[in-house]
Amino acid sequence: MRGVLGVDVRMHKGTLYLRRAATAGLLGLGCAGSAPLYAADPTQPQISEGSAFEEQGGAQLYQAICQGCHMSEGQGAIGAGMYPALRQNPRLGSAAYPAYNVLHGRNGMPAFGKQLSDVQVADVVNYVRTHFDNHFTDAIGAADVSKLR
Ligand code: HEC
Q1: CA–CA separation, 113 vs 100, rounded Å?
Q2: Which residue minimizes the CA distance to atom 42 of ligand 1?
Q3: From 76, 81, 86, 91, which residue has the greatest number of CB atoms within 10 Å?
Q4: What is the spatial distance between Cα 112 and Cα 136, in angstroms, rounded to a whole number?
Q5: With bands split at pLDDT 50, 70 and 90, how would you rate the model's confidence at 24?
Q6: In the predicted model, is pLDDT for residue 42 greater than 90?
Q7: Does residue 112 have its Cβ closer than 6 Å to ligand 1?
Q8: pLDDT higher for 132 or 33?
């Protein structure tokens, strides 16, 4: 069960993982400053380095991380912040662009590089580039993601 601030606390293999569930967008709270795991700098919120995402596969990762801001159909949202649509987004044409954003963040989007493996980043990037009316079939691999770190 997620708390009001979208913070998901659970035990996994004896380790306590604290994870912001990226639902702030849905709750209209905006990205920055809405969860205690974020750093104070509102220009690029950070997720705690100690957290990690256990989800595997593009669909699961999208739902766990991206959907809270970019929405279930990739349509994006405008509210407390501006969450660009990933649906039919020509800027996904180069796989390096979304991969870099996921690794390093971008303005109001947090960096996820420390919480995701190269395979997880590749999977979620390949997912968004082949769903939501995007049809880019040149998949990115884990080795390519590694070079962008
Ligand atoms: C906490 C909210 C949040 C989450 C979670 C999030 N994003 Fe974002 N994302 C943003 C915001 C805000 C921007 C706009 C950044 C800017 O350019 O100012 C953005 C921008 C992007 C862009 C650039 C879009 C463009 O048209 O230039 C891509 C690609 C992207 N996100 C992919 C993802 C993926 C993939 C995930 C999941 C791994 C994800 N995002 C998770 C908030 C989020």
Answers
A1: 9
A2: 109
A3: 86
A4: 22
A5: very low
A6: no
A7: yes
A8: 132
Q: Tell which one of 2, 61, 66 to mutate to probe ligand 1, the residue whose CB is within 8 A of the most ligand atoms.
A: 66
CA of 16 to the centre of ligand 1 (A): 27
Q: Is the pLDDT of residue 7 over 60?
A: no
Cβ neighbours of 79 (radius 10 Å)? 12
79 closest CA partner among 99, 108, 49, 105: 108
Question: Percent of the chain having pLDDT more than 70?
Answer: 67
Amino acid at 115: Q
The structure tokens 């990205």 sit at: 31
Give 45-92 pLDDT, tens digit per residue: 766 766 799 999 999 999 999 999 999 999 999 988 899 999 999 999
* Long-range contact pairs involving 27-33 (C-beta distance under 8 Å, separation at least 24): 28/79, 28/80, 29/5, 29/80, 30/79, 30/80, 30/81, 31/69, 31/81, 31/108, 31/109, 31/110, 32/81, 32/108
